[in-house]
Write a structure and sequence with these properties.
Layout (H helix, E strand, L loop, with lengths): L3 E4 L2 E3 L5 E4 L9 E4 L7 E3 L8 H13 L13 H9 L6 H19 L9 H11 L5 H20 L37 E4 L9 E4 H8 L1
Antiparallel strand pairs: 1-4, 2-3, 4-5, 6-7
Helix pairs in contact: 2-3
């Protein structure tokens, strides 16, 4: 796979070992991962370990080969700054957009705007929802949640972050209260009485249908 690690502090000597200091020796980070198509070069202080150059090289090579590489540095932008970029491209009814923008700035940008996109995690959202619940009803919280999820999904599609934390399975807005439904077989405003067959004393032609409630009253 394309890509390699460059040692910017030492170069190889006649024996093939990196023992000769370069002009950049001691300046900045020692190792540089570069040469991967579509991936910006990145420098590291260490060579090994989970945060070292080798681990990054392997990760970048694997994900770029599948077309799934997202550079974490792209998500370092603040949510407040990304919102400005995102909102500048929005189109629609000016009145509707104005109302949405006011809601987003008050309930999303104000409490979460200081966070970087790649730093917004599920625990942040849980606390945010809890705080919203102190001032908003379930229906309004659902609308605001939808706004945030749309913004973060745009960040995913812009390759700023790898996934949308609003789509996690363990979190979501509160469910709106359910409306009461009429009892089965009853219509709002209808009489509780129902017609039933009353044999009557005469022939079948003179028998009649009478309300069940009337029969009940007679039997008391």
């Amino acid at each position: 796979m394309p890509g390699y690690i460059e040692d910017r502090w030492y170069k190889k000597g006649p024996d093939g070992k990196r023992t000769i200091p370069t002009e950049r020796h001691g300046q900045g980070k020692r190792y540089k991962v570069t040469g991967i198509p579509g991936v910006r070069s990145r420098s590291f202080a260490g060579l090994t370990g989970p945060q070292g150059a080798k681990a990054w090289l392997a990760k970048a090579q694997h994900e770029s080969s599948k077309g799934e590489f997202i550079d974490p540095r792209s998500g370092a932008i603040l949510l407040a700054d990304y919102f400005e970029e995102y909102w500048a491209t929005r189109e629609g009814d000016p009145g509707t957009l104005e109302g949405q923008q006011q809601s987003i700035r008050k309930h999303i940008v104000k409490p979460l705007g200081h966070l970087q996109l790649n730093a917004i995690k599920v625990p942040h959202l849980r606390q945010w929802l809890k705080d919203l619940g102190k001032e908003l009803g379930p229906g309004t919280i659902g609308l605001v949640w939808g706004y945030l999820s749309t913004i973060l999904q745009a960040a995913v599609e812009d390759e700023r972050i790898a996934k949308n934390p609003c789509r996690a399975k363990t979190i979501g807005p509160p469910s709106p209260p359910r409306r009461r439904r009429p009892a089965p077989g009853r219509r709002s405003g209808s009489s509780p009485c129902r017609p039933v067959w009353s044999p009557g004393s005469g022939s079948s032609s003179t028998s009649a249908w009478v309300p069940a409630c009337a029969r009940a009253r007679r039997s008391v």
